[in-house]
Design a protein that fits this description.
234 residues, mainly beta, five-stranded mixed barrel, four-stranded antiparallel sheet, 14 strands, globular
Length: 234
């Protein structure tokens, strides 16, 4: 599933993608930064797109996001290499609040604030690349007896063979229990998506997922498991 689908944007062709980009530039807010600017479109559903434009006016791409209000505390270790980065991208490695595990995230508005090593609280949002819903902890443990209902694995720091990834990526595999949820409708495209606030190991995480991708009508107290792209606003 695409990150756009996870926040209700329906893009099924090159023409629809171009139309979406045009809407972003027509209705978005420009934020000037060193190296260019972000054009930020915020839908009434709180779905967002951060478009990037360099100093010569060239469109460089964009990141979908969600205007989450909840924050979690992490310890910044520093920025890391990203071979695909534009001049407006920054990728960070952090430790969880209790120093239980590291993970990597992309900063969608990276040049608005440079993060130095230290402790910060940021609004994190996880976009699924794989996701599964479990009504109970027992249902999850039946399918994954080798895991626990509080695990978090920073898969972006690993190669498929289990070694250290020389090009760390902002992906994590984890499970969380639903604390609250809301069904949203993207007003620009009409797509519906869930915003799930999960209680996870060492902190809460906001997860966004297309309604049809979840495969169930979620309930508070149930569990969501999967692989997620990790993003945050700085």
């Amino acid at each position: 599933m695409s990150h756009l689908e996870s926040i209700g944007f329906k893009v099924n062709s090159a023409e629809e993608f171009e139309a979406l980009v045009s809407k972003v530039f027509e209705q978005g807010e420009s934020v000037e930064v060193e190296g260019g600017k972000y054009v930020v479109y915020t839908d009434n559903s709180a779905a967002q797109i951060y478009a990037q434009v360099d100093n010569s006016g060239e469109f460089m791409g964009f990141m979908p996001f969600y205007d989450a209000k909840n924050e979690r505390t992490v310890h910044i270790q520093g920025s890391i290499k990203n071979d695909d980065a534009t001049v407006l991208d920054t990728r960070y490695q952090v430790m969880s609040s209790e120093n239980t595990y590291p993970f990597v995230f992309d900063a969608v508005n990276a040049k608005q604030r440079v993060l130095e090593a230290g402790t910060v609280s940021l609004p994190f949002v996880a976009f699924p690349t794989e996701i599964a819903y479990f009504a109970t902890a027992e249902a999850f443990m039946h399918e994954f007896p080798e895991l626990s209902t509080t695990y978090f694995i920073p898969v972006g720091l690993m190669t498929p063979e289990g070694g250290a990834n020389p090009n760390p990526e902002p992906y994590a595999m984890f499970i969380g229990q639903i604390k609250s949820l809301e069904l949203k409708k993207n007003e620009l495209s009409g797509g519906e998506f869930y915003v799930l606030e999960l209680s996870a190991l060492d902190g809460d995480i906001t997860v966004v997922v297309a309604k049809e991708a979840l495969g169930a009508e979620p309930e508070v107290g149930a569990f969501v498991n999967g692989v997620f792209w990790m993003g945050a606003k700085v």
